[in-house]
Structure formats: C-alpha cells, structure tokens
Amino acid sequence: MSNSKTAKADIDVLVSEVGPRDGLQSVKRTMPTTAKLDWIAALADAGLREIEVGSFVSPKLLPQMADCADVVAGARPIDGLTVLALVPNLKGAERAFAAGVDKVTMPVSASRAHSKSNINMTPEQAVEQVAAVCRLRAERPDYRHIEVEAGVATAFGCTMEGAVSEDWVMQLAGMLVKAGADSVCLSDTTGYANPAQIKRMFKRLHAEIGDKCGGAHLHNTRGQGLANVVAALDAGVMTFDSSQGGLGGCPYAPGATGNIVTEDLVFLLESMGLRTGIDLDKLIGARSKVLAGLPGETLYGNVADAGLPKGFQYASGGRPA
Amino acid sequence: MSNSKTAKADIDVLVSEVGPRDGLQSVKRTMPTTAKLDWIAALADAGLREIEVGSFVSPKLLPQMADCADVVAGARPIDGLTVLALVPNLKGAERAFAAGVDKVTMPVSASRAHSKSNINMTPEQAVEQVAAVCRLRAERPDYRHIEVEAGVATAFGCTMEGAVSEDWVMQLAGMLVKAGADSVCLSDTTGYANPAQIKRMFKRLHAEIGDKCGGAHLHNTRGQGLANVVAALDAGVMTFDSSQGGLGGCPYAPGATGNIVTEDLVFLLESMGLRTGIDLDKLIGARSKVLAGLPGETLYGNVADAGLPKGFQYASGGRPA
Q1: What would the pLDDT profile of B76-129 be if each residue is shown by its tens digit?
Q2: Dist CA A173 CA A313 (whole Å)
Q3: How many CB pairs under 8 A join A and B?
Q4: Alpha-helix runs per DSSP H in A157-271
Q5: Do B301 and A221 touch (CB under 8 A)?
Q6: From B157, B268, B302, residue closest to A221, measured CB to CB
Q7: Do A255 and B305 touch (CB under 8 A)?
Q8: Could you tell me the domains of chain A?
Q9: Which residues contact B5 (CB under 8 A, 6 or more apart)?
C-alpha cells in the first residue's frame, strides 16, 4: 500500500497478525494492557510488520477490547509497525483515528443474516459506514495517511444462510471500492471455504477491483486453512491474516483453531521460498508472552511442537531480514 | 491400475486408507483382530476402496501387526475392496501373497541413513528386494494379478540427513520401475515437504516415469498436510494415503497427526468438486470402531468435530455412490 509506513519491498508475502484482536476477543478472560503490549512488541521484534492490535467496539459487548486506545498508543512507537484496528462503524473509526492507528479494517458481511446478527446492519448500511469513515479521513489532513481496509465477511459461506452468492460478493467488493476503501479482503469467517473456491473467487476479485484486491482472512475450522493459503497464493494473494498459536480456538470445533496459526503459516511460506521477514524462533518465543498474559491458555499450531526441519533454510537464504 | 479389482471410473481421486497399518503400528497397544476387521468393514462401507490393512514384518519388531495374515483373510471377502499390505522385503511378500493380498506396497528410503536404520538395507538393496518380489509374482499365475507399489520414503527430506537430493529421488524412481514396480509413490515420511517442492517433484516424477507415477503419502507434522495435497493435485496426483482420525499421532509433535486425516482429506476433496465415492457421515461414524478396538485412544481431525458446512454438497451433487 502506498500510504503504509511499512516498506514491504524486501518481503514477498505480508503476514498480518490478528491475535491481539481476533484471538483475544474469542477468549473470555481479558489480557492486561501491559501484557498485550509485551506480546505485540515481541511479535514486532520477530518481524511482524502489521498487527491488528484490537477492536473499537462497545466495551459492553467485548470488555476484552476496552483498552484498545491504550494499546494503539502503546504500539505506535514501534518502528516499522503498521498498527491496525478493527472498527465496525463510524463511531469506532472516530475513536481509532483519534487514538492514532495507521490502518483500520471494517467488516462487511455478505450474508444478510450474519450482518444483522453481527452488527445489526444490512450489508448496504455497512457499506455506507465505510463511506462515512472514508469521508472522515478526507476531512482532516492528519487522518489522510490512514488506510481503510474493508473485509467481506462470510464471503465463502455462512452458518446461517449456507452458500453465499459469489456474484453478490463481487458486487459488494465493487461497492466497497466505490465507498473509498483502499483494499477489499475476503474472509472465510465460518471455515467454509475450499481451495477451488478460494482460487476462483480471488481471481475474480482481482479482475473486478484490480489493485484494490486485498488479502485473505482464513480460518482452520475444518483443517483446511493452509490448503486455502496455497490456493490463494496461486491466485496471486500476497497478504494473509493469522493468529499466533491460533489463539481463541474455534467455538464450533474443539481442538481446532479459529484463525490459521501464524507460526505454521510463516513456516509454510518460508519453506515455499516466499520471504516473510519473520524469524520463526523469535515468533515461537513470543508464545510465552501470550501465556504470561493469559496463564494456562491453550495454544495451537504444529511447528512450535515439531520444530524446524533439519537443515531448514529461510527463503532469503540466510536469517530473515 | 489395470490389474486392480476396483473399478475407479466413478471417482476422481482415490483415497487409500493406511490407518490399520501406519496408524496402528504407531500405537503401542495392539488392536484385537476382530476389532481391526470391524473397523475395516466400516471403512469399506463408507466407500473406501483401498485399505492398507497391515504390514508383513517381524512380529518381534511390530507385535501389533502379528495377525496380518488373518486380517488379510478377513478383509478379502469385502466386495470392491483392494486389500493392500506393506511388505519390507521378499520374505514379507511371500507371506502377503500367500495370505491373498490384492496389492503390496514396499518402502524404499531415499535417505541412506534412514534406509539403514529403518530396514537395515541400502536403497539399492531395497530396490533389489522389489525386483525379487516382482520375480516372485511373475513365477506363479495365481500371483500375477497382485499389484506391486513402491514408495520412496524420505523423498522430501530426512530427520537424519536433512535435505535429500531430488535427482537421486528421480533416479531411484526409475530404478524401481525397472525393477518391475507398477507404480512409484513419494512419501513425506518426516513431514518436511512444502507445497512448492511437492508440485515440482510430482511433475518431475510424471515426466520421469509417466503412468507409473503413483500417489502421495503425506504427513501433517508441521500442519502442512492438506496444503501439500492441494499442490499435489495441481501436479496431477490422483491418489492420496491418509489415516482415519490421524491415528497414532506424530511422535515428534504432540497434538499433531502423523498421517493426514482421512475425514479432513475427504472433506477437502469433495468440497473442491473431486469425487471420492466416500460418505463423510459413515466415515466419521467409523471412528467409533477405532475406539471400540482401542478404548480411549486420541483421534484427530477437525471435520469430525466441526461437522459439515450448512448446505454442503458432495462433488457428485447427491450422496456419494
């Protein structure tokens, strides 16, 4: 992204860590603010360049996210880090912009039933919120550098509606670009996506909105998360969301993660010869920060247990930059 | 395979179940013979058409496999099932042929260190065993229908040697075809493979040995199993080994499976529009047979917990055949 403060020329794929937001909001306990910042610092030190540090939603709905402005303020000084937060609407964006985020991500659900139950808006009303946030950004010079990303939730299917129309997802993506979003991601919120569908839809998304085509937010509900990554790479996707240790798990599948696991994703990419800029030893070391903030929490992922293969080489040939 | 008793025209991908061999040999307890046969019958009823029912090795080394001849005899009457067994050498093949198998698979390790420690032979000596088994088959008319598959173990890397030469793997595959093998599979014995490597090597294998190019035996040690399936499909691979419930786990990675999980593999393939002929509900139901034979054993896999997506459709459109 041209307006990002992070230089990305030395990496092939951007891994966007969502653990402090998507992971923590799925855990009932609240991680203390200082622990969140320790964890974020360790992730950045491992090479993560974009971290979704929290979500500006009502503290009544998600008390785990009540300190989001403090977390943004604490993460801002980290050199080279894009500080990203989720905002559901204009009100959230006002708080996020005031707190000093570099980027916001706004979920817009393709499924009407999911949209209603999740944010009590129609998809069209959610698009209007994106437009309002982009207008807010345009109004103030000190906000103009902030990226606005839209994420089409339930893009690959919905637990309430079942199949979701691909034509409608593409139409929605076009509406979001028109509303002013810098990029549009597709989210497999429900763990319904399969690799054939991922490849087909991201190719179509690129044809539809060109360089506004964003990343993939994939879940591992049915064990298919990294398989979908391979298909998305094939379709040219170069940004992936993931969560350290698959934090938060998956409410529908005991033993399964919600988000794909950052450690396993980075291993996959680096072993395929794609530079992420992330040091796997440091990344695995950062798991201790999660446990420091949430003692006894279950962490997922296979690479942390199995270790790296004998003779493993990073894509860059040496250590990651 | 032309000499298989299983008609495969109505499926796109053959899922070869290895749980009763690869899974059970990784579990210390021994599943009783009748329980093995109940499980195999349930798998076949779910639509599995090829099952590796055991291994003809020394009962001193693997007491769990001591009843292999009885299991073969018990599985033989199942209509449409290819009864497959692992044999490490000529002696094992003699027992397997006498027991009435439809097919044998012979591991030949590309890594010299692994070959030595696993079967106490050099790779060249192991190839000579394949040749001897093919001669045995040629000698007796009642053996001539038996398929001989060779599997190149540690084809993607070795825990002892690290990287394994791709040129050498291809050379070995050529030697195995020359020795008389009907097909040559590549096995990621150590969970080292990545999708880029899988795609490259299977394409090369096909160029090298044409229609003798066999399936992929993939592990999930670092969470990359199904990602490798997607890459292998891209390279034209149409046969995959997997194990129900990831039975036996992975000794190197607590919480991880060894073999990829049949349930998750079948879900992935069917959701991609590839017909397996397997009924997922019946397949998930067959997990109870594993637990009947090995009470309290840990089973893995996400689909069994998460269930099928709302509105899920098999690749055939209706129920699997």
Answers
A1: 999 999 999 999 999 999 999 999 999 999 999 999 999 998 888 999 999 999
A2: 38
A3: 142
A4: 166-179, 195-209, 225-234, 262-271
A5: no
A6: B302
A7: yes
A8: 11-86+251-321 (no CATH), 87-217 (3.20.20.70)
A9: B80, B82, B102, B145
